Amino acid sequence: KRTLWFTRSYIMAIHENKDNTDNFRSTLAQVVATLALSCLSFSIGFVAVMPTIVIGALRNDTSPLGMSETAASWFGSVMFVMQPMGSGVSAFLQDILGRKTCLMAVNIPNLIAWTIIYFSSSTLHLFMAVIIIGIAMGFLEAPILSYVGEITQPRLRGILTSFSGVFSTIGMMILSSLATVMDWRNLALISMSGPVMALVALAFVPDSPAWLVSKGRVSDAEKAFQWLRGWVRPEDVKHELAAIVSYVKETQSLKIIDNVEYKAVPNKENPVTTNPKGRLQLLMEPRVRKAFQIVFIYFTIMACAALLAMRPYFIEILKDIGSPIRPHIALALCNALQLVGAICGGVLMRILGKRRLSFLSLGLSVFCCLTLGLYLSYRPEFPWIPVALFSLSYFAGPLGIFVIPWILIMELFPLRARGMAGGICGAVAHGLFFTTTKTYYSLVHLVDISGACYFYGAVGVLGFIYLYWDLPETEGVSLEEIERKFGERRNSKQYRSP
C-alpha cells in the first residue's frame, strides 16, 4: 500500500510540477544536459569504427604494424573482452562517486589511448590502446544510462536516451568518411577531440538528483532539479523533489529531519546494499532476476542479428565478395544510413513504443541476415546486393535493437539495484560481443560465411519469438511506475501495454 501511495503521489507531483514550470524551458534544459553527454557518445562512435579502419589498413601488411588473421581477430574483439572489467568497476563506483564524476573521469584514459594509437610503432602499442579504451567504454555505459534515465521526465526519456545512439553514429560516420581521405594515425589525432569536448561540456551540467538525494544531499538535489526543469525557482520543483525524497526513503531507509526542509540523512547503513551478502540478495530478487533475463537475452539477439561479429572485418569482407565501390566509401555510406536509422528510431520510439519498434528493427535485421546468407550461398553476378543488404543492416540496428536493451537497463531495474545491475549487464553484453566477434573466423571456417549469416539469422528468429512473449512496454511510463508494475503479476495483455 505504501508503494502504491508513493507511486500515485509521484505521478500527481509530476502533473502539478507541469503547472509550475514552463514545458519549453524544462525540455530545453533536459536536452542541453543530454547534449553534454553526447560528446561522450562521439567518443563511442570513434571507438566503434576505429578497429574496422585499422584492420582494413594493416591486414597482411608487411610492416611491424601488420596483422595476421589471428591478430586481426583479437584486435577486433579484445575491446569487448576488456569492457566487462570497466562495467564491473562502474557498477560499484557510480553509486559511490556519482554519475557525473564517473562520466568525467572516463575521458582521461580515452585521451591517453588515442595518444598511444597516434604514436604507435608496433601492434603491441595498438593492443595496449584498445585495452585501455575497452575498459573506459565499459566504465561509462552504466552511468550514462542511469544519468539520462534519472534526469529526464517520462515524456522525454525515450527520445533523449536515443541521443546517445544518434551521436555515436554521427561519430562513426564522421570518422569513416574521413577515412576515405586520411590515414588511421590522423584519425586517432582527430579522435582526441571527443574526450576534451566531453570534459568541458560535463563540467556545466548537474549531477543526478536521485543520486544526490540517496546520499543525503537534498539541497544539492534541489539545485539540480531547478537547473534540469528550466532554471526555475525552488518552489517550482518542490513537489517533484519531495516525491524523490519519499521514494529514496522507501528504498534506502532514509530518515527525514522534520525541522529542516528537504533535509535527509542516512538513518543507518542499509544492509541490503553495503555488504556482499546483501548485494547478492538484492540481485536475486524475482523482479531483478526477470530484468536480467530479458536484458541478457535481448543483448544476445542484438549481437547476432545485427551482424556485430562481421563489422570489424567489414572492409575485408567487401574486398572478398568483390564490392562494386571502394570498401571505405561503402563503410562511410553504411554509417550514414546508421545515423538515419538512429534518428528514425528516436522519432518512432515515442510513436510505436519499444515493443513494436523492437519487432520492426529485429525483423529487418533478420531479413538482412538470411538474404545475405542466401546470396553468399549462390554468389550470383549482382555485386550491389550484398552492399545493399549490409547498408540495410546498418540502418536497422540503431533503429531499435542497438538502443532499446540499454534503455531497458535503466527502466526495468529498481533504483537500489540500478547501479550494480547496469554494470553487470554492461559486462555481460560486452562479453557476448567479444565472443561473437572473436569466434567469427572460426565460424566461417566451420560453416562458410553464408552459414554464419544463416546462424545469426536463426538466433534473430528465436529472439523475435521470445521478445513477443516477454518484452514489456515501458515507453512513456515513469521509472517508479515501471518498478511497481514490473514486480506485480499481470496478464500478458497488460504486461505488453503501457
From TrEMBL:
The cellular location(s) given in this protein's UniProt record come to:
Cell membrane
Q: Does the keyword Transmembrane helix apply?
A: yes
Q: Membrane topology for this entry?
A: Multi-pass membrane protein
**Keywords, in A-Z order:** Cell membrane, Membrane, Sugar transport, Transmembrane, Transmembrane helix, Transport
Q: Where do the TM regions start and end?
A: 28-54, 74-93, 102-120, 126-148, 160-181, 187-205, 291-309, 329-352, 359-378, 384-409, 421-443, 449-469
Does the keyword Transmembrane belong to this entry?
A: yes
- PROSITE patterns given in the database record: MFS, SUGAR_TRANSPORT_2
Q: Name the major location.
A: membrane
Q: Would you name any one GO CC term? A: plasma membrane
Task: Give start and end of each Major facilitator superfamily (MFS) profile domain.
Answer: 31-475
GO function terms (MF aspect) = transmembrane transporter activity
Under which name does UniProt file this protein?
Answer: Major facilitator superfamily (MFS) profile domain-containing protein
